[in-house]
Amino acid sequence: MLVERPQPPLWIRLLLLALLPLMALAIYLHGQREVPERDGAFMRKAKEPVKGQAELSTLPRVLQGLPRFGNLRHYSVETLYEYINGHAEAFISAGFERLYVVEFAPEGAKQPSLVAELYHMGTPLQAFGVLGDETSEAASPVEVGMMALQSGEQIQFIQGPWYGLFSRYDPKLDLVKAAQQLAAALPGTEQAAMAFDFPAWGAFEETRYIREAYRGLDFFNTVVERYYSKLDGGRTVFVIQQDEAKLSALDAQMRSFYQQEGVPMTPQSWQGMPYLALEDKYEGSWFIVRAPGRLWGVWGEATEAALKPLHSLWQQRSKAAGKP
Q1: How many whole angstroms separate alpha carbon 312 and alpha carbon 181?
Q2: Which end of the chain lies in a sparser environment, N or C, as judged by fewer CB atoms within 10 Å?
Q3: What does the pLDDT look like over 46-85, one tens digit per residue?
């Protein structure tokens, strides 16, 4: 049964209605007061340059004879979807930190002739991973930055922690030359030493970056894999480059896993270099070599042809770390 609640007297309701405009006036007047801390912070913010101008001050103002078109645009993790809605999550999960978009066009033009999308991915390795994910198989290598591929009117490149997508809308422009000039001007490229320590096994056919769970193993993350078709009829090697603490934890987790799975692990040595040989019923024979800051895994038997170049790498890393 519903019970009707008693209403307040009419005079109380009228008084409350009369107070509303007075409250609004009081709030307005309070907002007009001079508050130095608040007003000073507001003025400082108003005078700050557009975010990204300082970081990208090294970028050219003119490219291929074309001046900048419009303002430099900046996107963060929170706003990336505004630029690449539907694909932002793939970049964010790959380590994305920020994006700048800079365009160039002739004076008076209504549309840009060159558009550069510059994604800061945090590390060169993560930039390399995005390049591998974003390029098509039909793309051809070109000499831009640390590594680049061209497909039609676009060049995708990496330079230090940057992944760049450079697009041309005027076929008369030299796309490669423009991309070279832009990549060379990017800041933070002292990180460009993305030297993956692969053994000198000759020509290789493919290099891939696997962000996590390499071959379904959740302890093998941030892996770079390379395939050599001419060595021993075809060899695949992977390398993980991390600090010693992380590699030691990975090594312990790996050994624990294979011990539980009943996979035979046999310590071996070749000319003083220790390695671990495994016999996996699913993956077959393969072996692992550890050095300071490096872990190599090689699929297949430990032949002399495979071990000798690895031994050179192992010696170099050990010497650099001050180990005999």
Answers
A1: 37
A2: N
A3: 333 445 567 778 889 999 999 999 999 999 999 999 999 8
169 is written with which tokens? Answer: 């809308």
Q: CA-to-CA distance for 273 and 175, rounded, in angstroms?
A: 48
Give the side-chain half-sphere CA count within 13 A for 129.
22
N-to-C CA span, the chain: 90
How far CA 60 is from CA of 27, 48, 65, 109, 151, in Å, comes to 49, 21, 11, 19, 24
What are the structural domains, with CATH classification, of the chain? Answer: 62-190 (3.40.1000), 206-320 (3.40.1000)
Phi, psi of 114 (to 5 degrees): -130, 135
**272-313 per-position pLDDT tens digit:** 999 999 998 888 999 999 999 999 999 999 999 999 999 999
pTM over 0.85: no
Which residue type sits at 143?
A: E
DSSP states along 118-166: EEE-SSHHHHHHHHHHHS-TT-EE--SSSEEEEETTEEEEEETTEEEEE
